Amino acid sequence: MKRNATIYYTSDVHGFLFPTSYGDKEEKAMGLLNCVSNFKKDGNTLVFDGGDTLQGSPMASYIMAKGGEVLESEPIALVYNEAGYDCVVPGNHDFNFGYERLSHYYNALHGACLGANVEDLEGELKLSNSKIFTLENGLRLGVTGIVTDYVNVWEQPEHLKNIKITDAFMAAKKELSLLKDQCDVTICIYHGGYECDLETGEVLSTSGENVGYRILKELDYDILLTAHQHMPVSGREICGTHTLQVMANAIQFARIEITVSEGKVTVESTICPAGDYHEEEPYKTLLPLEGEVQKWLDVSIGRLKEPVLEMSKLDMAMYGSGIADLFNQIQLFYSGADISCVGLGNTPMSLPEHITMRDLVRVYPFSNTLVVLSVDEAALKKALERCAEYFTLKDGAIEISDVFLNPKVEHYNYDYFAGITYEVDVTMPVGSRVTSILYQGEPLNGRSLSLCMSDYRGSGTGGYEVYKTCSVIKRIGTDVPELALDYLKKHPVVELQKNGSIIIRR
């Protein structure tokens, strides 16, 4: 007997419920409301989400900033419930606001919350390891969810004090052994990505942040749905498992068609654009909230002496960025550190003379806090060598290295430093490129400096493992956007300071 099932899948929605315009060029995220209007549910259809829901959009920022009744109403959960999501998996950013926030959100959801490698030490999260869905036609789908265990590296300890994140691969392996004999189809939803090139199998990262390829190679799930890397991966069979990934911010979703006949599972999938249509509800119900978000985004919060014009990512890295200068100024002001570094997002950026909340959310959408480390000359050089890896030479011209482009675009792992001037020779091999480091115009000569950075970078993430060896001088618990608001309030007109530079030789 042949039986069929349909799955709709989203991931990394980041709170983009509405088709939201923001930024100098009116960039658009289509919105989850547009995605879910494409879902056609019946007794043989399931809807899944791969996590990173609570952080990353203007609306998500507004919900956390306003709190109170807005937060209590859980507008994001409302959309997931109206759309009939059957299960969700936590993403790493869903832990950014702590246990209470995650618990409140999960308990507002009607669907199952699956996190096989997330141990709830308080027992208040509506969380389970896996679930078997029996469809109208009798087909049994065993589904588990896991999140990259790099949450332990990135997240603030106080946000995980009631949660234990265990090894993602081992959790996936354990759940498969439990599900396999009970189900017709086994599915792993993994908030993580691929550490190898899917075409060649070439290892691209050994950090352990992503283990999707290992799951494909060593386990035999019928379907592996990935997330986290924000890149479109069309459905394909690898080692007998069908796998895919969709882009972030509700730009697209996946439709997966499953056929089971005489014990054989056949899977086909399509990556679909969100489109420009949405149902009347819950759009109409949430429209007043969206209106309040837009008003909030247009509130003036400060002024620059001169606007920051948009530059390409390569030009920003080579010649400096006014936006990086601004955030380094903010970090140095509140930390009192000798030097500072900041990573920026993947898209080119600009800032007008008169800054609104919309501008701040656009250029710094993260909820990072700050840490100050003591770095000696050797540690600082290792960190700068990682920055120098951003560049490569091709026919004598400097380009961005594939190391920062594949398998995931990671411009945000290039750091802009303030307080030092350093020279890089791109003709030299990586690891031997930094030829000079000057602080206040003088060589370090073995001196240690205090270095302020985001807690994300301070964890050693992004190729900066050397920071794990450095002692912590202090932590600043207020998140960077809040510090930026306070800084702009204290400085009616901000003059950006070019505090140090990178000099590139070739």
Task: List the topology elements.
Layout: E1 2-10, E2 20-22, E3 27-29, H1 32-36, E4 45-49, H2 58-66, H3 68-72, H4 75-82, E5 87-88, H5 99-108, E6 112-113, E7 118-120, E8 130-134, E9 140-147, H6 151-154, E10 163-165, H7 168-179, E11 185-191, H8 212-218, E12 223-226, E13 233-238, E14 241-245, E15 252-261, E16 264-273, H9 283-297, E17 300-303, H10 313-319, H11 322-335, E18 339-343, E19 354-356, H12 357-363, E20 370-375, H13 377-388, E21 391-394, E22 397-400, E23 415-418, E24 420-425, E25 434-439, E26 442-443, E27 449-454, H14 455-458, E28 471-476, H15 480-490, E29 501-505
Parallel strand pairs: 1-4, 4-5, 5-6, 9-11, 11-12, 12-14, 18-27, 24-29
Antiparallel strand pairs: 1-15, 2-3, 7-10, 8-9, 13-14, 15-16, 17-19, 18-23, 20-27, 20-28, 21-22, 24-25, 25-26
Helix pairs in contact: 11-15
Brief digest:
The chain is of the alpha/beta class. Strands 6-5-4-1-15-16 form a six-stranded mixed sheet, with no helix packed on it. Strands 8-9-11-12-14-13 form a six-stranded mixed sheet, covered by helices on one side. A five-stranded mixed sheet has the order 23-18-27-20-28.
